[in-house]
Write a structure and sequence with these properties.
Elements (H helix, E strand, L loop, with lengths): L1 E8 L5 H14 L3 E8 L5 H11 L3 E11 L2 H13 L4 E5 L7 H6 L2 E4 L7 H19 L7
Parallel strand pairs: 1-2, 1-4, 3-4, 3-5
Length: about 140
């Protein structure tokens, strides 16, 4: 089974976000072993970046407002390619301060979900939903319309 890591800075405090994360992790468990790793906020972006990179495995995909924008279908194609190649990959969600240059430079892909800024707790839910959608698209499921 493919392994996907999600490295996030900070913990989710709100129960409704935790419930949504848990739901998508449950749904994703049919397709992949997804592990969410929470990294404590660092004293500065450099420290935070070092901790993020230590936790990352395989190809690094950094969520970054200045990154490349994909449609859901394009993300599904990208995920399928990684899975077909048997590659482990890590999505990275930074803190409210963003990501260090070291993380951005280490990323195989900088991915943007929007030009808008979202709370990093909400981005965890959005990312997991889009990963689930990707697997459903790739499997021909009816979830994606």
């Amino acid at each position: 089974m493919i392994k996907i890591d999600v490295v996030c800075v900070g913990k989710i405090k709100e129960e409704f976000y935790r419930a949504a994360v848990d739901e998508y992790l449950k749904r994703l468990s049919r397709f992949a072993k997804v592990e969410v790793r929470e990294i404590a906020e660092g004293k500065n972006l450099s420290d935070e970046g070092e901790n993020i990179l230590r936790a990352a495995k395989g190809k690094i995909i950094a969520l970054c407002i200045a990154g490349k924008k994909f449609s859901s279908e394009q993300l599904a194609d990208y995920v399928k390619t990684l899975c077909d190649n048997g590659e482990r990959f890590t999505f990275i969600i930074g803190s409210s301060c963003g990501l260090s240059d070291s993380v951005k430079n280490a990323a195989h892909l900088k991915l943007s979900f929007s030009d808008m800024t979202f709370p990093h707790q909400l981005m965890r839910v959005v990312l997991l939903e889009q990963l689930y959608r990707s697997f459903m698209i790739n499997g021909g499921g009816e979830y994606h319309k």
